């Protein structure tokens, strides 16, 4: 995909898996295409807990309209 087509915007970053599942479900119920949703797992270590980052791809024209 071309770099100017859009970018991923973080919806939520949290250590709570249930919150991430709820947010994904709400996005899907709102009609968001599943291919535009992605989840990163930020692996924790002793000092930091594992966190989950839910992002949504937003096209360039939609970003400008916000």
What does this structure look like?
It is a single chain. This protein is of the alpha+beta class. It has one domain (9-60). The protein is built from two helices and three strands. It has helices at residues 17-29, 60-65; strands spanning 6-14, 37-42, 51-59. The protein has a three-stranded antiparallel sheet. Strand 2 (37-42) and strand 3 form a beta hairpin.
List the helices and strands and how they pair.
Elements lengths: L5 E9 L2 H13 L7 E6 L8 E9 H6 L1
Antiparallel strand pairs: 1-3, 2-3
Shape: flat
Number of domains: 1
Radius of gyration: 14 Å
Strand order across the largest sheet: 1-3-2
- How many DSSP H or I helices? 2
Write a compact overview of the structure shown.
The chain is of the alpha+beta class and 66 residues long. The chain contains 2 helices and 3 strands.
